[in-house]
Structure formats: C-alpha cells, structure tokens
UniProtKB/TrEMBL annotation:
Belongs to the sigma-70 factor family. ECF subfamily. GO terms for molecular function: DNA binding; sigma factor activity. Keywords: DNA-binding, Sigma factor, Transcription, Transcription regulation. The keyword Transcription applies. The gene is sigL. InterPro entries: RNA_pol_sigma-70-like, RNA_pol_sigma-70_dom, RNA_pol_sigma70_r2, RNA_pol_sigma70_r4, RNA_pol_sigma_r2, RNA_pol_sigma_r3/r4-like, WH-like_DNA-bd_sf. Pfam families: Sigma70_r2 (PF04542), Sigma70_r4 (PF04545). The keyword Nucleotide-binding does not apply. Residues 23-92, 121-169 form the RNA polymerase sigma-70 region domain. One of its GO terms (biological process) is DNA-templated transcription initiation. This is ECF RNA polymerase sigma factor SigL.
Length: 179
C-alpha cells in the first residue's frame, strides 16, 4: 500500500475518533439521564446511549447540524430505542424476580414403577429366555451378536427371543399391564 494511502487512512481514522469523542462529550450524559428517566434502568440506559451514539456517528449529516438539533435528534432516537426494547419479544418474556427459582425435575414415579414391574416380569422368565431378551432390548445387540456371545445358533436366538417376549407379555398382562 502506498505511503500516502496509509497516511490518509490514519488521518481519517483520527478524525473519526475525534468526532466520536466530541459527540460523546457533548451528548452522552444528557441522553443517558433522559433514558434513565424513561426507563429507571441505569444499566439498560448505557446500552441505549451507546446505540444512539453509534447511529449518530453513522449519520454524518446529523453531526454537521447545530448541536441543539443533533441533541434533539439523539433524544428522539433514544426514545424510539426504548420503545423498541419495551416491545421486543425478549423483554415480554423476561420477568424480574427476587430469587432464581429452583429447577424442577419431572416426576419419575411412573417410570420407577414401570421399571420395577418389568424387572419382576423378567425374573419370571427362564435364564435362557431372559438372556436374549435383555441382550436384545437393553444392550441393543443384533441376532448375530447375541448368537456369537452366547455361542448358540442364530435360529435358537430368534426362537428364544420369540418365546421369551411371549412369556413376558403374558406375565405383564397378568399384572394388569395392557397395551
């Protein structure tokens, strides 16, 4: 990049920084007091003032006007930002509370009773039938994996799984569980 371009860019950046500093010095405090008066929120006022100053800085013709006109424009922008914030979805969903509520956990009572019921029903199966049912439904093994692990033919695994599920279904029906 040529030396002249670097100097021009640095010079322009310096002028922008000076303009922004002058804008802040002249208008930030009165706009901040105005926003606090509207909202009662000192922390939120900082954000509104920052956005107002940014919009003024991005609108060069505002900065070239009379300072009272610029301040008037900034009050209007700040008021619109306050209104927008009040209407925003985020603001409507937020509720101020003194303490953060405890997190609630879903009631697991039904799941506990179901687990006990299934465990009791599984206990009524033969050891061979229970072995394939547990491997298939709780460990997620395939027929081939179960056959390899139990050292039995795949057809035997399928048969034990079929009859084991049938016996499990009958036991659960006897306990009052319906489909």
């Amino acid at each position: 990049m040529p030396h002249d371009d670097v100097e021009r860019r640095d010079s322009a950046a310096g002028r922008d920084a000076a303009r922004l500093a002058a804008l802040y010095d002249a208008h930030a405090a009165p706009v901040w007091r105005y926003v606090v008066h509207l909202t009662g929120d000192r922390a939120g006022a900082d954000d509104i003032v920052q956005e107002t100053l940014l919009r003024a800085w991005r609108t060069p013709k505002i900065l070239e006007q009379d300072p009272s006109t610029t301040r008037s424009w900034m009050f209007t922008v700040a008021r619109h930002l306050v209104i927008d914030e009040a209407r925003s979805a985020r603001r409507r969903r937020e509720i101020d509370v003194a303490e953060v509520p405890e997190r609630t956990a879903p009631d697991a009572t039904d799941a506990l009773f179901e687990a006990i019921l299934v465990e009791e029903a599984l206990a009524t199966l033969t050891t061979d039938h229970r072995a394939v049912v547990v491997r298939a439904y709780y460990r997620g093994l395939s027929v081939a994996e179960m056959a390899d692990e139990l050292d039995i033919p795949e057809g035997t695994v399928k048969s034990r799984l079929h009859y084991g599920l049938r016996a499990l279904r009958l036991t659960l029906q006897e306990k009052g569980v319906t489909r």
